[in-house]
Amino acid sequence: MAMGHGGRAGGPRAGTAAPRRPRRPRAVLVDVYDTVLRTDALRRRFVDVGRPEHEYELFLAHALRDAMGFALAGTPTAFGRVLADALRSATGHKLSDDALAHIREGFTALPAFADAEPALTVLARSRVPAWAVAQGSGDHTSSALDATGLRTYLRGTVASDDLGVLPPDPEAYRLACAAARVDPETTAFVSAHGYLVHGAMRAGLVGALVLREGEGAPATIDLPHVTGTSLVTTVEALLDLPS
């Protein structure tokens, strides 16, 4: 059983390969969307243009489905194009170009979670370098992080459009490590999305899952090496691993 307040996982799930013994990482890849930055702030933008806020969930579900579908078909597509089509579909093709742009522009104005800056500060003070990892373009992700002042804590940004491979494909994490010039075996991946942590562990990284608001780890993923009830406690659990 994963420990609730920043702890180590208790062992492999039935039917999965036993993970290697985790070690304190020398570098950390941090997932951006819904781990560091809150995409639920987009709800307000749907309301701004006269649409119900629940279309936010439909929009993101369509975008992730289509992005992964294209990737599985062997034709990875720029995430911005996927987002544009998903937004039109989720809103019933009823919005003007200006209204669609108003919603999409929200991606560069997303607020950070309250625990994001403290967690990145913990890594910086521990001299463990961190890189942001996100779906989409590196420029858009960097702009979003700049708007919150968080990019100053990061060594760089690695984006799926630049990699040409979409997480949770294990190759995406290997390429991300190569782009950051770090070794997957000494690198951790931190996310609030269980399926993304699962993919990282399959690529040989240390997996760290953020379980906010009493969430539990999905039963279908490899048990994460560490979990925490906030980004801070998750990072602290990584740093508490043996060297």
Describe the protein.
The protein has 243 residues and is of the alpha/beta class. It folds into two domains: 7-37 and 110-239, HAD superfamily/HAD-like (Rossmann fold); 39-108, Orthogonal Bundle (DNA polymerase, domain 1), CATH 1.10.150. It is 41% helix and 12% strand. The protein contains ten helices and seven strands. The chain has helices spanning 42-48, 55-72, 79-90, 97-104, 116-125, 138-148, 160-163, 170-180, 194-202, 231-239, and strands at residues 7-8, 27-31, 130-134, 156-159, 187-191, 206-210, 226-228. The chain has a seven-stranded mixed beta sheet with strand order 1-7-6-5-2-3-4, sandwiched between helices. Helix 6 (138-148) links the parallel strand 3 (130-134) and strand 4. It starts with 6 loop residues before the first strand and ends with a helix. Residues 1-5 and 8-19 have low confidence and may be disordered.
Quote the distance from N terminus to C terminus.
23 Å
- Provide the helix percentage: 40-55%
> Beta-strand level of the residues, as a percent range?
5-15%
Shape: globular
Summarize the main sheet. Answer: 7 strands, mixed
The overall pLDDT, averaged over residues, is 92
Which blocks of ≥5 consecutive residues have pLDDT under 50? 1-5, 8-19
Q: Give the ordered list of helices and strands.
A: EEHHHHHEHEHHEHEEH
CATH class of the largest domain: Alpha Beta
Radius of gyration: 18 Å
CATH topology of the largest domain: Rossmann fold
Structural class: alpha/beta
